[in-house]
């Protein structure tokens, strides 16, 4: 009989790593972490990743440093997910090359599901921006306050101490006074570090818009709380302003899950097994008993089985419901894979009246929190805005300037001045809207298979009228803000219009914040896990990560999922 | 005039960064950069690049040697070779590779120039190459 582990955690991203870390603090548990990816978590690995992205065009692409990984063949990532639906559908598949398109779509889908994730040791935190705002108290009560979406089975008060713990685990820098009490979101402890200082660019923008009335809302430029060191903290250096947060912090001043994984692996009772793609969780009499995985490093790939007292599913909001559906598990509510959400994002670009000198410092330091709450949430989505320090962000790289100048026939002495002038005045405002949990937005199993013969995820997705109205408002607000700044919005195609006449859809982007699909609730008939993260249907299966969120709110999800992962770990410990 | 010198002068003329051909302090750096860029561009533009270099060398061999400036650039653009769209393409990509260490092939695919950190754009916009900060925490608060 195979050795029985106390806890098997599926996934080594931030949720899995924090849950394992907390459990290792609470008891002498034998923990096995199974991870589909197979990269190292060393400094050398970071340098290799950095060397993979030296061409300009790849910067800002969350996959660029990682797409040479061998794991991409056996644990593919959705590298084409940001393309429009038609382009994703029409792109030829190249199985076994690591370049195959991973997402599949139901015939009736209205939109592409553009959000992607990295299946690797340390998960998507390698390539996240690091923003760590908390949810607002109202974000937990959307249904009872505004009659839309759902309520959480817990409230802000219950999560607040865990937010504090999560801020210390991730190393969040922020200014307590700016954020304490934001729409009722009190803070019982200060941040572990003071906020990242504003960039020169932020200061110039703040001078022009701070305190202004923008279409009826008074705005305040505040430092975004971010898991980015403003001092030496937790063995990692202070930020050097590489302006490269996405797709990789070269010096790990930005938190990623490898931080906790390195610490965990110094303990003999913790094991990380990589290149292990989970295919099945077995159950018997209301308890999960075994986890099956394929080791793709073996040739041919070999199936293994491990036994566990407790299983924790932490494979993010696409792979987690896939594993449950493949195992026909935890789905008496029929909600597994449903209520899929993202933060639907858009950005408006402009040229500031004077040089801002972007690309010096983090990609974004400040934002506007003022549009996250209000009675309007009955009718349309709220949004969080960020002020970019990365030029025109995803709309146009600095290198895109040269193409336009050359096409205009400019060579010679005019070029240096033009390039300097155009790039140093680039600015962007982006806004991320909240989606409502809707069972019609769903990920299920495609009949099409990946290289290991595992079903690919298949989507049915529509951002819906609530989000579309929020995006329109975001556009109006951004336009007004640029007007107040005296900035010039370039005409299309340089700036992207919201409405796309060709596709008859909006030109939205993804924030790659995947949520929903295993949502939390008190009623087993319409939710997958209970308030502690335990599956309603099983005694010993727990789910962590943003898949359990009943509302997307407007906050970047990592801090909230980190708080929940720590809280779930404590609940597991109580039941052991 | 050797090929490297011709390429460096042509690059200075097209990019407007005349130091590529005249900065004695950074001569070795510019020479090694030019060698690498010439090699990479020749791989893609094996016919139009020599044509453009020939056209430039014809102009530059005049006596006295003409200064590298916009007047010379105007003469180069008036040469018959410049009527060839592939020659115009390679002229654009010479500019692209010096500023951003990247270039587009004739079919439009973007290719790495191999010397990302040496892109001329960075000093121009007063930033470090993205991902290669050599500056301490908080440098970004000040106007450069």
Q: What overall geometry of chain B do the principal axes of the alpha carbons give? A: globular
Rg over alpha carbons of chain A: 23 Å
Overall mean pLDDT score of chain A? 95
Q: For the residues shown, what is the average pLDDT of chain B?
A: 96
- Summarize the biggest pleated sheet of chain B: 2 strands, antiparallel
Strand content of chain A: 15-25%
SSE run of chain B: HHHHHHEEH
What's the number of extended β-strand segments of chain B? 2
What is the gyration radius of chain B calculated from CA atoms?
16 Å
Query: What is the terminal-to-terminal distance of chain A?
Result: 22 Å
Strand order of the largest sheet of chain B: 1-2
β-sheet strand percentage of chain B:
under 5%
Helicity level of chain B, as a percent range?
40-55%
Number of helical elements of chain B: 7
Which parts of chain B are unreliable, with pLDDT below 50 for 5 consecutive residues or more?
none
Low-confidence residue ranges of chain A:
none
| Global shape of chain A | globular
Could you please describe the fold and organization of this structure?
The complex is a heterodimer of chains A (576) and B (144). Chain A has 576 residues and is of the alpha/beta class. In chain A, 25% of the residues lie in helices and 18% in strands. Chain A is built from 14 helices and 20 strands. In chain A, helix 1 packs parallel to helix 14.
């Amino acid at each position: 009989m195979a050795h029985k582990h106390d806890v098997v955690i599926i996934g080594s991203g931030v949720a899995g790593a924090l849950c394992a870390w907390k459990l290792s603090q609470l008891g002498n548990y034998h923990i096995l972490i199974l991870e589909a990816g197979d990269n190292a978590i060393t400094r050398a690995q970071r340098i290799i990743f950095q060397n993979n992205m030296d061409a300009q065009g790849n910067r800002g692409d969350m996959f660029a440093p990682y797409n040479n990984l061998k794991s991409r063949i056996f644990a593919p990532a959705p590298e084409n997910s940001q393309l429009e639906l038609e382009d994703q559908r029409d792109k030829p598949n190249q199985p076994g090359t690591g370049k195959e398109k991973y997402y599949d779509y139901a015939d009736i889908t209205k939109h592409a599901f553009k959000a992607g994730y990295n299946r690797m040791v340390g998960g998507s935190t390698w390539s996240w921006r690091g923003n760590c705002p908390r949810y607002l108290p109202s974000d937990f009560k959307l249904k009872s306050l505004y009659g839309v979406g759902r309520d959480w089975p817990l409230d802000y008060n219950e999560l607040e101490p865990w937010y504090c713990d999560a801020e210390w685990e991730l190393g969040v820098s922020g200014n307590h006074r700016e954020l304490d009490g934001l729409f009722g979101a009190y803070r019982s402890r200060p941040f572990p570090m003071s906020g990242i200082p504003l960039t020169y660019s932020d200061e110039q923008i703040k001078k022009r818009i701070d305190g202004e009335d923008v279409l009826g809302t008074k705005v305040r430029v505040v430092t975004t709380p971010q898991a980015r060191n403003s001092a030496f903290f937790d063995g990692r250096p202070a930020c050097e302003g590489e302006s490269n947060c996405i797709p990789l912090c070269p010096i790990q001043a930005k938190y990623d899950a490898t931080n906790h994984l390195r610490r965990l692996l110094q303990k003999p009772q913790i094991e990380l097994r990589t290149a292990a793609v989970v295919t099945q969780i077995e159950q018997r009499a209301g308890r999960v008993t075994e986890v099956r995985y394929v080791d793709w490093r073996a040739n041919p790939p070999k199936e293994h089985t491990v036994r566990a007292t407790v299983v924790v599913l932490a494979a993010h909001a696409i792979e987690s419901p896939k594993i449950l559906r493949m195992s026909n598990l935890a789905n008496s509510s029929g909600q597994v894979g449903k209520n899929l959400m993202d933060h639907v994002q858009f950005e408006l670009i402009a040229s500031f009246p004077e040089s801002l000198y972007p690309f010096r410092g983090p990609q974004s330091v400040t934002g506007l929190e003022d549009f996250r709450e209000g009675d309007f949430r009955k009718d349309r989505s709220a949004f969080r805005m960020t002020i970019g320090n990365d030029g025109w962000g995803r709309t146009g790289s600095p290198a895109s300037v040269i193409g336009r100048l050359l096409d205009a026939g400019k060579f010679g002495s005019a070029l240096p001045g033009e390039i300097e002038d155009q790039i140093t005045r680039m600015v962007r405002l982006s806004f991320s809207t909240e989606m409502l949990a809707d069972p019609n937005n769903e990920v299920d199993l495609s009949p099409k298979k990946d290289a290991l013969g595992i079903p690919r995820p298949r989507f049915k997705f529509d951002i819906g009228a609530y989000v579309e109205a929020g995006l329109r408002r975001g556009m109006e607000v951004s336009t007004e803000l640029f007007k107040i700044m005296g900035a010039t919005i370039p005409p299309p195609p340089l700036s992207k219009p919201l409405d796309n006449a060709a596709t008859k859809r909006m030109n939205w982007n993804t924030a790659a914040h995947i949520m929903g699909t295993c949502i939390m609730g008190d009623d087993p008939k319409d939710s997958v896990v209970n308030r502690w993260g335990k599956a309603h249907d099983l005694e010993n299966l727990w789910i962590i990560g943003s898949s359990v969120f009943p509302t997307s709110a407007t906050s970047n999800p990592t801090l909230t999922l980190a708080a929940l992962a720590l809280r779930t770990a404590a609940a597991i410990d109580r039941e052991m | 005039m050797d090929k490297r010198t011709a390429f460096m002068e042509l690059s200075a003329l097209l990019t407007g960064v005349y130091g590529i051909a005249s900065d004695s302090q950074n001569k070795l750096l510019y020479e090694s950069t030019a060698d690498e860029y010439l090699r990479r561009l020749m791989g893609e533009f094996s016919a139009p690049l020599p044509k453009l270099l020939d056209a430039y060398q014809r102009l530059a061999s005049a006596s006295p040697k003409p200064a590298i400036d916009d007047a010379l650039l105007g003469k180069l653009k008036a040469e018959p070779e410049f009527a060839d769209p592939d020659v115009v393409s390679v002229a654009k990509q010479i500019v692209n590779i010096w500023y951003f260490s990247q270039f587009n092939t004739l079919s439009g695919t973007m290719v790495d120039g191999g010397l990302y950190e040496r892109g001329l754009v960075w000093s121009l916009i007063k930033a470090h190459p993205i991902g290669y900060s050599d500056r301490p925490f908080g440098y970004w608060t000040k106007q450069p």
